[in-house]
Amino acid sequence: MNLHRSRASFAVVGHPNKGKSSIVSTLARDDSIVISQQSGTTTHSDSYKIDTGHAGFELIDTPGFQRPKKALYWLNQNANSADQRVAAVEKFVNDSDCQTKFPDEVKLLTPIVEGAAILYVVDGSRPYGVEYEAEMEILRWTGRPSMALINPIENDRHIDSWKNALGQFFKIVRVFNPMQAGFSKQLALLEAFSHLEPNWKVTLEQVVTDLKDYQRAIVVQGSSLLSDLLIDLCSYQTHQKVLTESQAKALQPVLTKQYNHWMRSREQGAFKELCKLFSHQQCHLESEAFDLPPDLFDSEQWYAWGLNKKQLATVSAMTGAAAGAAIDVVVAGHSFMLGAIGGGVVGFTSAWLGADKLTTTKLVGLPLGGYQACQGPINNKNFPYVVIGRFLFLFEQLKSKNHADRTSIIMSENGLKERLEGLQKNETKALHLACKNLSTQKANENLQEVLLVLFDD
Ligand SMILES: Nc1nc2c(ncn2[C@@H]2O[C@H](COP(=O)(O)OP(=O)(O)OP(=O)(O)O)[C@@H](O)[C@H]2O)c(=O)[nH]1
Ligand SMILES: [Mg+2]
């Protein structure tokens, strides 16, 4: 046999429509692999190379068996005894007649003949039947290391009878649900792979170590993304020069629109980064109540995302600020950004803005005449918590979302309030202080570290 696959390599094979591509998608952490209810979706053997940093392996998605009985008949015609079976399979994949008559069997057997190990996938919610025996027999003929995976697609009703049958053809039989198996179950499966072929043991153990390290690194990266996002959103300000107050008023809706657009895109950008971090490249975000992207400025939702009134009152107590005074100071405090221009704040508040109470637009007199109309930064005390709540919600969703699961993530209320209750007192205080600094545009020295506790399990 010509074993020219030196890396750990696994061909995922079985009947059509049993979740082969789903398993590859979840284990390869690749949500671009086509999965469909339609039988016969995968028509070629597609290789996915998984590089985990210090090691790697390969998964090969294959088309399902179409004519296993006839293929087995051909093989029987070409092998008189057990010692000839491996060669017969090799002859089968290289035979031009077989390539025409049995294209799917040839495609799925080729990587195995080339040295891949076998992952045979069945559906544990459907009864076992003799029609599977021809394909299992063919796989046995290849002589390659193999494992059976029972995917309980709809339920686990027939798992036991499957185990009885599979145990006679495969040394290792596991139940694995590619839609739901969490990270630890995925790692356990990879560990089981390492027992299939002694030459691959070290590599696959390294893969598991790398993946565990990556999972930890994601937490640090996530907190870093959130830290940058908070700083940007809480300090963002847009401004434009105008000649008269009335021009400034006319400009206000434009400024508001620009401001809101920037803030929303900045948040969406961070969400995309987060999706990338988890290799969820295709994932869509939807809001629960409406079929629209969840909106950062939907303040109706703010008490769901951020803190409630009672918690906000506690924040003020913990960080030692009189609630009302803090906000006034923020508005006046804008001069730290505009100070260089020289003019005083003429004073426009949210009343001037109509509906949007989240930011204040100000008009600043310029030394050489004219004005500067400014919008932002946001000064709402709850705002940093809202940003944290939304980000953490997405983080948790992505963390538990398998790559075979193509349903949209629904942005609904998160558990920030409960999460805060689980923190140590000093951690809570540090977080509140950091948020207060953010909403008053003061620098935080160690924002990322303060946020890190929110990402821990
Ligand atoms: N609920 C549920 N559905 C699953 C599971 N695994 C697969 N499916 C669904 O079963 C269907 C087939 O999945 P695929 O992964 O495309 O199956 P396949 O074996 O690659 O199919 P072919 O390429 O056509 O041979 C899809 O609609 C999947 O969403 C599972 O564990 N749970
Ligand atoms: Mg497929």
Describe this structure in words.
The protein has 457 residues and is α/β, with parallel strands linked by helices. The chain folds into two domains: 9-196, Rossmann fold, CATH 3.40.50; 213-452, no CATH class. It contains 19 helices and eleven strands. The chain has helices at 20-28, 68-77, 85-94, 96-101, 103-113, 133-141, 159-166, 183-193, 201-235, 245-277, 302-305, 309-319, 323-332, 335-338, 350-353, 383-399, 416-421, 425-439, 447-452, and strands at residues 9-14, 46-51, 56-61, 117-123, 146-151, 172-175, 238-242, 285-287, 361-365, 371-375, 409-411. A six-stranded mixed β-sheet has the order 2-3-1-4-5-6, sandwiched between helices. A three-stranded antiparallel β-sheet has the order 7-10-9. The protein has a two-stranded parallel ribbon with strand order 8-11. A hairpin with a 5-residue loop joins β9 and β10. α8 (183-193) packs antiparallel against α9 and α9 (201-235) runs antiparallel to α10. The longest helix is centred in the middle third of the chain and has 35 residues, at 201-235. The chain is elongated. The two termini are 48 Å apart.
